[in-house]
Amino acid sequence: MTPASLRASTLVLLTFTATCVAQAAANKSAASAAPASASPGAAKADALDTDGLPSFLLPVPGGTVEMGLDAAAFVQAACQAALPNKPENALKIAPAQVSNALRRSSSVLGRRKVDVPAFLLGRSPVTNAQYEAFVAMRRKDGGKFHVPFHWWRFGRSDDYNQKLDEINKLFPKDSEGPLNYWDRFGGELPGALKDNKGNSIGDQPVTFVSYRAANEFAAWLGMRLPSEAEWTRAARGAGKSTWPLAKAEDPASDRFTEQLMKDLRMFTSTDKANKACGAVPAAAGPFGHTDMFGQVWQLVSDQGFRPINGREAFEVEWKNLMKDKAGELVKAPPAWRDEFVIAKGGSFLSSQEPIQLLVDARAPMQTIDVLESCGFRLAKSMKPGFDALFSSLRGTFHKGPFAIDQAIDLASQVGGERYELDAGGFVTSYATLSFAPVNWLAKEKNAELGKLLDQSMASPLLIGALMSTQPMLSPAAPAGLYSVLYRKSGLPKELVEAVKIGHKELVVAKAKADKAGKDDKAKAEESDEDKPKDDEKKQDKKKPWREVVSRFGITDEEILGKDAADGQLKTLRIDGCAVPTTEDCFLLHGNDGKVVAAWSVPNAKPAFAAQAVNGMTVTAADKGKFAARIRAGVPVALGVAKKFADVQLAVVLDFEAPTEAKPWRLPAPADR
Questions:
Q1: Lowest-confidence range among 17-31, 46-60, 481-495?
Q2: 639 — alpha (psi -120 to 50), left (phi > 0) or beta?
Q3: 3-state secondary structure string across 112-138
């Protein structure tokens, strides 16, 4: 978190500047795809199997949703926001307000229908009480994790007041000193769920949480943030309303008025504050989700701030806008930014910028930004383990093994999961094992699987990402998110030859040194004739065989071994991790940028397949441990259909296998 992001938290409104309204070329990464499209086969909400899932999630029926506005509707909305009593006169009476509304919200230009499969969405935004358990978990055993700023500033005003002198010394004459202090030391500061009057805020939406922290919280619960299309479907339903609270049977109700702000409890100064979830009945969406509008901004999962329906749709409506009188007020389109994320729904501060209450309104944010008026709510797909992996990939994930344009294909994810819930239906523990393949093994369309596997002896082949919330026994690794690579047994030809040459040279050198030691050890130590000169040592290091073995982390001691005489070694070291060469192996590449474990490939080695078969089966291993067999089809070449590598992984967790009393949600039989 940076001071710039902290300053954002003190704003009385979330400003939509032209430099913040961001759009870049469409991100083709499947890992960044909207979950609605990445979770295939979802059924209608009334058919969703929600057994064992948290009860705070409500279904959103699958269907289409209208997203974005055409130029005419956009201008009309801007005029209503600028002068609600007489919007037809807004361009004459309040041109500055109309201009601001248009300029700051023009990313909504471009309208289209979007298909959204059925999914589950939190009844309300995440509350302070729900987030408190996560903070406690992160701080367990002395870990450092920021409490939301107001938990410390108001909830522990005693500690805050004690630190004022220190704050003023560190940040003299700085009105944002407390925020800067919290940014620097927040991982150690105490917090409590109280407001400045000592009242509980446990049932209020949690705020001052960054996009990164929100995704981490979501992954912890096996969930994710909704996509923008999903959020809009939950907020608008199947209608075409521009503003909240519009009635389908009464088109005239779809407009901005002061009454709208009164209904959303945003009109008076006392209403411009965070409220308990569900305290404003009018703010509910069509499927029963509370606090959709005008309470707190809600982060969505989409990465990159771009035109709501793509550049092409935007440019069509931008041209139409330029033909309107209002278009003269907007000098240029937004400066699109790919690194931003967005929030939806407006907040209790949006009365000062009413255009923020559009159903399609979008607030740009950096992933490290925190705001007093921005929270988030959780969503869940029906694919077991999908959401935890989706959210984790939006956090810290070392992509060193990835090639340019290579990404995780979440549409092909397979996994299982298990929830434990309290009496109120909230999560007390969550376990998952989830895997998703990469979108291709090679960029060349004529790539052959056999050659790629052979090449993996020299450069292990990236095949996907594996996430486990439990410690693993096979491979032997802690819980976490990893890249998975494949290495074929054996050694590449150049390494075999280098080891042979090196073995011969080192054996001769050792024999010479041993003989010198036997004849006259003391004399040998002093004799220049029996010691390599400095330049000789440098030349030795430059020998071609040494350059080869050094790339594989092989030591002189290993080359001197008897097995190395014919150029063969039973073990290689990759990033210090022992990797057997006598069998095909999978490798785990961790977030520290190193290979941390290797384990055997099952009997079924990667093989060519004309179609992908993805699934997971679970059995009990020794001592009743959780054993899974994962199968995934990995596209061999970019853009080539019917050409897959059929990959199978065997994973054993240090966790009990599913039982009748403690079942796991697993892929449907058709997916196994």
A1: 17-31
A2: left
A3: EEEEECCEEEECCCCEHHHHHHHHHHH
Burial of 432 (0-12, 13-18, 19+ CB in 10 A): buried
Measured CA to CA, the distance from residue 525 to residue 410 in angstroms comes to: 63
SS3 26: coil
344: DSSP letter = E
Residue with tokens 């079924």: 604
Say how far apart CA 250 and CA 243 lie, in whole Å. 13
Amino acid identity of residue 333, one-letter, is: P
Backbone angles phi and psi of 196, in degrees to 5: -70, -10
Name the token pair of 568: 């063969």
Classify residue 41 as left (phi > 0), alpha (psi -120 to 50) or beta: left
Phi, psi of 407 (to 5 degrees): -150, 170
CA distances in angstroms from 577 to 147, 436, 499, 595, listed in the order given? 37, 24, 20, 6
d(CA 373, CA 208): 8
Q: The tokens of 132 are what?
A: 């408190």
Give the global pTM. Answer: 0.88
Q: Long-range contacts made by residues 10-13, C-beta under 8 angstroms, separation at least 24?
A: 10/176, 10/179, 10/372, 11/371, 12/349, 12/352, 13/349, 13/350, 13/352, 13/353, 13/356
Measured between alpha carbons, how far apart are the two ends of the chain, in Å?
43
In whole angstroms, give the CA distance from residue 560 to residue 571.
Answer: 14
| Segments in 268-310 forming alpha helices (H) | none
Pairing of strands 585-589, 480-487: antiparallel
d(CA 5, CA 487): 43
The two structure tokens encoding residue 441: 């093994």
Q: Which residue has the tokens 């897959």?
A: 644
List, for residues 234-266, the tens digit of each pLDDT value. Answer: 999 998 999 999 998 899 999 999 999 999 999
Query: Per the structure block, which two tokens stand in for 226?
Result: 């909704």
Tell which residue, 68, 159, 142, has the closest CA to residue 358: 68
DSSP 446: T
Enter the tokens of residue 425. Answer: 């239906």
Query: Do 568 and 502 meet the contact criterion of CB atoms below 8 Å apart?
Result: no
Q: How many CB atoms lie within 10 A of CB 461?
A: 24
User: Residue 648's beta-bridge partner residues?
Assistant: 631
Predicted confidence (pLDDT) per residue in 199-240, tens digit: 999 999 999 999 999 999 999 999 999 999 999 999 999 989
Cα→Cα distances 107→24, 68, 232, 301, 390, Å = 12, 9, 15, 17, 26
Sole residue written with tokens 């009844």: 123
Backbone angles phi, psi at 501, to 5 degrees: -65, -45
Task: State both tokens at 197.
Answer: 């009057």
Q: Are 436 and 449 in contact (CB under 8 A)?
A: no
